[in-house]
């Protein structure tokens, strides 16, 4: 059942392992291969309405916000609509301008996060249209929204979100595909994304099969006082969520930075005591990322690379490789090993993995 650890040491590990099937549930009935699009009846929006938006604004807190950043990237790439994510907790307090031609999307696993709910209510008060990407059916945020998508990821018990994060990213890929196909995304590109989505569950299984190696790496890096996480463009939200996961469950200080910004400040921190986890997909930014790794190594900073091809050992002494999907969808897979990395770092440090200190699963107060 969802409410016992099913033989796993912790709910967190169980939920990481559930992802091939929780992703299948998020995808189920929604990939329309015939017309190379996504079938999303719950959006309550016809093609003409879906074409009319000139901007997308995504709101959530914590991991939901980071998955929103990944979602914004997907929507901008596939649908070519300017898209941006913002913490709902900030948005609700800054008297935001609500625009009639912006599509607002609220993200929440629990559907009960008060800051996100308050943001939705503020948008609605000002006449904006809000969709929900929510896991818990019938929750407060789901009820308040004008339509949306349920993740169907199943109950998530561990405070640190894993399967809900991944399913939210899948939901955004479907929304981006749908918005793309009512605009300028070609049928061929739509077909490519449909096939990529369908391949993800088995590719997650391949990544989970590397659990033992990832656990060893986590044990090796866990005794450093802090870690840097870097990524560029598609890799950036992955780095942010990877750092978030590590600090939540292991209490190791983790800072995420765009790889491109390292030289504008945090490079001063780099040295033998501060390892870097670098998210480096084999995309058009590969060379740029490898240059950054060279800059880190020149300061004797240890590097663990997560990517597609084994790097020159001079640039990264350790690497975790994931299977390649379509470039737009690769970030979803690159995030999976970082969940195992955080989990095993927390285990090595004997932390209270499922209930980290000072945190609650859903924050229903201001
Ligand atoms: C809390 C949890 C986080 C979670 C965030 C948003 O802060 O500790 O793990 O990402 O709430 O939760 P939601 O249920 O809205 O996705």
UniProtKB/TrEMBL annotation:
Q: Which reaction does it catalyse?
A: D-fructose 6-phosphate + L-glutamine = D-glucosamine 6-phosphate + L-glutamate
The UniProt entry annotates the active site at 361 (for fru-6p isomerization activity)
Query: Which enzyme type, at the first EC level?
Result: transferase
Q: What is its EC number?
A: 2.6.1.16
Q: Which residues form a coiled coil?
A: none
Query: Where in the cell?
Result: Cytoplasm
Q: Which GO molecular function terms does the record list? A: glutamine-fructose-6-phosphate transaminase (isomerizing) activity
Which keywords does the record carry? Aminotransferase, Cytoplasm, Glutamine amidotransferase, Repeat, Transferase
The record places domain SIS at 45-185, 217-356
Keyword Repeat annotated: yes
Q: Its biological function?
A: Catalyzes the first step in hexosamine metabolism, converting fructose-6P into glucosamine-6P using glutamine as a nitrogen source.
Q: How does it assemble?
A: Homodimer.
* Name used for this protein in its record: Glutamine--fructose-6-phosphate aminotransferase [isomerizing]
Give the organism, scientific name.
Streptacidiphilus jeojiensis
């Amino acid at each position: 059942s969802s409410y016992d650890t099913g033989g796993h040491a912790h709910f967190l590990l169980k939920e990481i392992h559930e992802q091939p099937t929780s992703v299948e549930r998020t995808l189920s009935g929604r990939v329309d291969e015939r017309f190379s699009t996504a079938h999303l009846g719950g959006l309550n929006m016809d093609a003409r309405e879906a074409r009319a938006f000139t901007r997308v604004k995504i709101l959530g807190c914590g991991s939901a916000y980071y998955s929103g950043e990944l979602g914004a990237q997907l929507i901008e790439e596939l649908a070519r609509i300017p898209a941006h994510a913002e913490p709902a907790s900030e948005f609700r307090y800054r008297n935001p301008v609500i625009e009639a031609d912006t599509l607002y999307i609220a993200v929440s696993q629990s559907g009960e996060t008060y800051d996100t709910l308050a943001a939705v209510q503020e948008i609605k008060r000002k006449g904006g249209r809000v969709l929900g990407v929510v896991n818990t059916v019938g929750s407060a945020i789901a009820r308040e929204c004008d339509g949306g998508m349920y993740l169907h990821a199943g109950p998530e018990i561990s405070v640190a979100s894993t399967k809900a994060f991944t399913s939210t990213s899948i939901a955004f890929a479907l929304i981006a595909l749908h918005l793309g196909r009512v605009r300028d995304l070609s049928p061929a590109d739509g077909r490519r994304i449909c096939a990529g989505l369908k391949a993800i569950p088995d590719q997650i299984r391949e990544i989970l099969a590397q659990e033992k190696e990832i656990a060893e790496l986590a044990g090796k890096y866990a005794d450093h006082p802090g870690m840097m996480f870097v990524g560029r463009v598609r890799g950036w939200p992955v780095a942010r969520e990877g750092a978030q996961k590590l600090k939540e469950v292991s209490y190791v200080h983790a800072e995420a930075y765009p790889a491109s910004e390292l030289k504008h400040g945090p490079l001063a921190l780099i040295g033998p005591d501060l390892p870097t986890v670098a998210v480096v997909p084999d995309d058009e930014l590969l060379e740029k990322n490898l240059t950054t790794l060279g800059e880190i190594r020149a300061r004797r900073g240890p590097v663990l690379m997560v990517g597609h091809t084994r790097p020159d050992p001079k640039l990264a002494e350790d690497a975790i490789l994931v299977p390649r999907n379509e470039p737009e969808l690769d970030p979803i897979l690159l995030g999976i090993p970082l969940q195992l990395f955080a989990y095993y770092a927390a285990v090595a440090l004997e932390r209270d993995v499922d209930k980290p200190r000072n945190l609650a699963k859903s924050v229903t107060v201001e």
